[in-house]
Amino acid sequence: GQADVVMCNATISACERGAQWTFALVLLDQVRRVFLQATVVTWNAAISACEKGQQWAKALDLLREVPRRRLRPNVVSYNAAAAACERARRWSEAMDLLRGLSA
Question: Where are the PPR repeats (predicted)?
Fold first, then answer.
């Protein structure tokens, strides 16, 4: 239920702080496999974990996946993905995100 999703969100956030992006993605996959309804907070934590792990392409993949899950990316989603691009010096991709926000 909801408590399980909250616990997963906290665990994925802990992975982010510990730069354990691969484990964060495993947890995100587990949430989906056990049919828990991941929230935008869940996805944001996973995107942030990718940013900390310098996985800009994976962060962008996750951001693109959010609407496919019938969720709406928010400013935190875009900020985390943009930070991943910035960390990797992927300025063009960061600008594409900014253009997407203003469209």
Answer: 39-73
Q: What is the pLDDT of residues 62-80, one digit of tens each?
A: 999 999 999 999 999 999 9
Q: Which two tokens stand for residue 51?
A: 């940013």
Helix axes 91-102, 56-68, angle to 10 degrees: 20
Cα–Cα nearest to 96, from 65, 84, 16, 54? 84
Q: How far is the CA of 79 from the CAs of 44, 51, 53, 75, in angstroms?
A: 9, 10, 15, 6
Provide the number of structural domains found in the chain: 1
- Which residue, among 78, 69, 67, has the nearest Cα to 38 in the 3D structure? 69
Q: Spell out the residues 6+ positions from residue 26 whose beta carbon is closer than 8 angstroms to its own.
A: none
The answer to whether 12 and 28 have CB atoms below 8 angstroms apart is: yes
Report if pTM > 0.90.
no
